[in-house]
Each structure stands twice: as structure tokens, then as C-alpha cells.
């Protein structure tokens, strides 16, 4: 639907490769999840179902277009840039990898997550610019026309939207470990800015203002409508995921206890629990 060009029966190399990688990922994830489920800690079946749903959505998004036109493109963009990333993020693939791999893998992943590039690409401002700015560049510049003529550019654009969508979903509600993430209030503000940005772009598409897409006006309006309403659904699901995965911070600030002069015995130093020590 997204990566396919030409006739509805054609399967470009990028489409075949993406579906093949998705199939391999499903096999690997399900095998690891089955092993973890047999352990005492277990593995939540809902996470496995979420991963399968994300891969199915991704396969549909990269398959041949069921109908030509800008509306079909927009639907594919929403699937590959918002719905599939959210479902995959909620499946906690990094946590499963850390629990399934040897210690060397855990140390390697930890170094990546603590690296400066990881902190940069998960910065809220960077993600907002990449998300909203990427949409604006695609629809209000010649980039869309270029992508229609070049399979490489077309594929690169949608890889960008998938990666940004995944990182944004993790930033807001991802259960996996990662670089330092802001508090819930900041995440809600970031989500609100993203919702507003998507709404503005959708309304500009519907109005045909500043649009650099070579398509009939009714198709562009249909695409803007899809972005407005389906985008809202994806963002509501993301906000719901944040509420369901949020845990209040019960850490307390421990004040040193002064020894009683009358007894002459010093009180023991307060012991930090695991949550406080980790913080």
C-alpha cells in the first residue's frame, strides 16, 4: 500500500524484503516469548499479541495498494508511521531481547542505550521536529513528487516515518528501557504538541493550502480527512497506553536523622530501596 508503485499486482524488492524481515521477526519473537513464558516470571501473552498485530499492520502497509490515489497513500502512511510502531513498542521487544540473550548482548544493548546518539535521537524536541517537520517537508515541498519517481527516496521516507514513529511511541508510553525519559507531565505536553501539529497539517491538506502534491483536490481532501481522524485515533491509543503503563513515583526524599544527644547513640543511615537507588 505504501511502498508499492505501479500496478496493484506488483511487488517491489523493498516490499518483499520488508515482509520477509517481518516474518523472520515474528518467528524469532514468538520463539523467545514461548521460552520466557515457561519460566517462573513468564511472559505476557498480550505483548506477543501486540507484536503480531504490529507486524500484520506493517505487512498490510507495505503491500500493494488496494486503490490508487493520495487517500491510499495516506492510509498507508498512518499504518506504517503510527499504528504499527505503537503496537510493536507495546510488545517490549528490547526487554524480551535482554531476557533472552546472553550477558554480552545485555552489555552491548546497555552501551547503545547510554550512548550520546541514543540520547539525541530520543530527545523530545528532536522527535517532534523529525515527526511534524518530516510531514511538512513531504507534503509542502517537492519531496513527495521526488518520492513518486524514486523507489529509493520513497522507501527511505517511510523508513524514516517508521523509525520516528517507533521512537516517539517509546518516548510517550514504551515499556522498554532506554535513555533518560522525561516525566509524565513533559510527555503529555510533547504528545499535545504532536497532536496539534498533525491537526494543522491535516487541515492544510484539506484546504489545499501550500500543498505540493500532484493529485486531484478531492483526493487531497480525503487524505487530509484520514490524517485528521485516524491520526486522532492513533494518538488517543498512545495516550491510553501512557495511562495504562504509568506508575506513580513513590520515592521519598530521605532526610538524615540527627542522633539524640540524650542517648549518645547515632541513628543508622537510611537505606535506599531499589527504586530510589536506580533514580
UniProtKB/TrEMBL annotation:
Presence of the UniProt keyword Glycoprotein in the record: no
A matching Pfam family: Caa3_CtaG
Keywords: Cell membrane, Membrane, Transmembrane, Transmembrane helix
UniProt topology in membrane: Multi-pass membrane protein
Cellular compartments per GO CC: plasma membrane
Compartments it resides in: Cell membrane
Disordered, as annotated region: 253-279
Sequence ranges of Low complexity compositional bias: 262-279
Superkingdom: Bacteria
Spans through the membrane: 12-34, 46-66, 78-99, 120-140, 152-174, 186-206, 226-246
Annotated protein name in UniProt: Cytochrome c oxidase assembly protein
Amino acid at each position: 500500500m505504501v511502498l508499492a508503485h505501479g500496478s496493484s499486482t506488483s511487488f517491489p524488492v523493498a516490499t518483499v524484503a520488508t515482509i520477509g524481515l517481518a516474518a523472520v521477526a515474528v518467528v524469532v519473537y514468538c520463539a523467545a516469548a514461548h521460552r520466557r513464558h515457561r519460566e517462573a516470571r513468564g511472559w505476557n501473552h498480550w505483548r506477543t499479541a501486540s507484536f503480531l498485530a504490529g507486524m500484520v499492520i506493517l505487512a498490510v502497509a507495505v503491500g500493494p495498494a488496494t486503490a490508487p490515489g493520495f487517500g491510499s497513500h495516506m492510509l498507508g502512511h498512518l499504518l506504517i508511521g503510527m499504528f504499527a510502531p505503537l503496537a510493536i513498542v507495546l510488545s517490549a521487544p528490547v526487554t524480551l531481547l535482554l531476557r533472552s540473550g546472553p550477558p554480552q548482548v545485555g552489555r552491548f544493548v546497555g552501551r547503545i542505550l547510554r550512548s550520546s546518539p541514543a540520547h539525541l535521537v530520543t530527545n523530545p524536541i528532536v522527535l517532534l521536529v523529525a515527526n511534524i517537520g518530516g510531514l511538512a517537508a513531504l507534503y509542502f515541498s517537492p519531496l513527495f513528487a521526488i518520492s513518486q519517481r524514486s523507489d529509493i527516496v520513497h522507501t527511505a521516507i517511510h523508513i524514516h516515518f517508521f523509525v520516528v514513529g517507533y521512537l516517539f511511541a517509546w518516548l510517550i508510553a514504551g515499556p522498554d528501557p532506554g535513555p533518560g525519559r522525561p516525566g509524565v507531565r513533559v510527555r503529555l505536553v510533547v504528545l499535545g504538541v504532536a497532536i496539534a501539529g498533525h491537526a494543522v497539517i491535516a487541515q492544510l491538506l484539506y484546504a489545499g493550502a501550500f500543498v505540493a502534491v500532484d493529485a486531484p483536490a478531492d483526493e487531497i481532501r480525503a487524505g487530509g480527512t484520514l490524517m485528521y481522524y485516524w491520526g486522532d485515533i492513533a494518538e488517543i491509543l498512545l495516550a491510553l497506553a501512557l495511562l495504562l503503563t504509568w506508575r506513580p513515583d513513590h520515592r521519598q526524599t530521605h532526610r538524615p536523622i540527627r542522633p539524640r544527644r540524650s542517648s549518645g547513640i547515632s541513628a543508622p543511615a537510611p537505606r535506599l530501596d531499589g527504586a530510589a537507588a536506580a533514580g
